[in-house]
Design a protein that fits this description.
about 230 residues, alpha/beta, Glutaredoxin, 2 domains, five-stranded mixed beta sheet, two-stranded antiparallel sheet, 9 strands, globular, disordered N terminus
């Protein structure tokens, strides 16, 4: 598929249809553009459960490309656990790792947060920002389950009301978790001037970027930038 055709397909994806399709796994990619040659549509039309999932990942990738071009240039978030705020424009020069955690009770979010909080001491140039779309009281209760082992201070947890920031960053919604439909777990890494360096969107609660992979990816991106 040419770059022009990929752009055309991406433009045709309706946001509401995307969310519904991702939740039900019934999207027929062949319907996105009837002008796509039949031979190409046959390659991406989900004929089985596995192909359907692969097709949805394709849409996710296309939408993520669009989202990266439209990330917010500034935002301010508040922490119910520490009573502090963070404004992106005041963090110039720092690498910001935005961890979009899941709504409601999430043991893997606890594990992920603990692992990256420990990593923070080894990567002082990176500010790890943990975000949850729950209420202030729910976040406080959830944060109480974080472990302080090997940590000087517990990580600051910020609130993303109604997942507004996650939506602005193009984190896909439609993941059914604990009886609710929420956005997928995601990591978005911003450079010193606010530009996106890379992102990782998990396919499920347990699908997260491992700390070692994060360090390797960041090192690779920085090496490319220095050339």
């Amino acid at each position: 598929m040419t770059s022009a055709r990929r752009f055309d397909v991406r433009q045709r994806v309706d946001a509401h249809a995307w969310q519904s399709a991702f939740a039900t796994q019934d999207l027929d990619l062949g319907q996105l553009d009837s002008n796509i040659p039949l031979s190409t549509r046959n390659k991406i039309t989900p004929m089985t459960t596995n192909n359907r999932r692969a097709g949805l990942v394709l849409i996710l990738s296309l939408i993520a490309v669009t989202a990266r071009a439209e990330n917010p240039t500034d935002f301010t978030i508040e922490s119910p656990t520490h009573g502090k705020t963070l404004t992106l424009s005041e963090q110039k020069g720092k690498v910001i790792a935005l961890h979009f955690l899941l709504k409601t009770e999430c043991p893997y979010c606890i594990k992920h947060t603990n692992e990256y909080a420990k990593l923070a001491s080894k990567t002082p140039e990176v500010l790890h920002v943990f975000l949850k779309p729950d209420s202030a009281d729910e976040i406080k209760a959830w944060a109480g389950k974080l472990s302080q082992d090997d940590l000087k201070d517990l990580p600051v947890i910020y609130r993303d009301p109604d997942a507004g920031l996650a939506k602005e960053f193009g984190i896909p919604d439609g993941y059914k978790f604990h009886g609710q439909t929420v956005h997928y777990p995601a990591l978005v890494v911003l450079g010193g001037s606010g530009q996106e360096l890379f992102r990782y969107v998990g396919k499920s609660n347990t699908d997260r970027m491992k700390p070692d992979d994060f360090v390797a990816k960041l090192k690779s991106v920085k090496a490319k930038q220095s050339k």
